[in-house]
Design goal:
With 68 residues, this protein is largely without helices or strands. The chain has no helices and two strands. The relative contact order is 0.17.
Amino acid sequence: DNTVMPLKFYAPGRCIPPEGATPDTLLPRYIKTSSIKIVVTGGPGKQSQIWTPFTQSTRPSSVKIDDL
């Protein structure tokens, strides 16, 4: 519910808007909760990251480095 943005901010062809949608129609960024991945990296600090999938050109990958 909190990950919505107006249609006008989506790149052309990145979503299929509902019929009658206007540029200000709010659309969810993620349709399935399984599309959201939480990754914890590094140590203490105020840095954050968001990784978006680039499914048309690359595939995301992950590697487990070590158990603490």
